[in-house]
Design brief:
It is a single chain. This protein is mainly alpha-helical and 122 residues long. 82% of the residues lie in helices and 0% in strands. The protein is elongated.
Length: 122
């Protein structure tokens, strides 16, 4: 029984790490936001955090460690939509994508690819 629990914990270390890094990115950009400076960490941190939460929920559902309920799927979709909206709701998206491609293209794209991979994996 304990060995099973240890294996489950090991399967979620990547998503936990992504959640922690996303929160740290967001927290590190708060000072720049208060000074009115553009920040790459704000968008990337929020997008990474919500995406990692959605990925973790989907992975737990796929592994069968939780019951697959409609509410859980709705929560996953809401997290993914929020992760994408943070990027898409910027004033000048094209300029921001060219200026900060990591937080505006690569992080949300990676989040979406990882989530879709785990959802459609057989």
């Amino acid at each position: 029984m304990l060995k099973n629990l240890e294996n489950i914990k090991d399967k979620h270390t990547g998503s936990l790490t992504a959640i922690i890094i996303g929160i740290l990115l967001f927290i590190s950009s708060i000072k720049s936001i208060t000074e009115g400076l553009p920040t790459e960490g704000f968008v990337g941190g929020i997008s990474l955090t919500f995406g990692a939460i959605a990925y973790r929920l989907a992975k737990k559902r796929k592994l069968g460690t939780v019951n697959p309920t409609v509410l859980r799927v709705i929560l996953e979709v809401v997290c993914i939509v929020l992760a994408m909206l943070v990027v898409l709701m910027q004033n000048d998206l094209r300029l921001m994508a060219l200026s900060y491609p990591l937080s505006n293209i690569f992080i949300p794209g990676g989040v979406l690819i990882a989530y879709l991979y785990i959802v459609f994996k057989k």
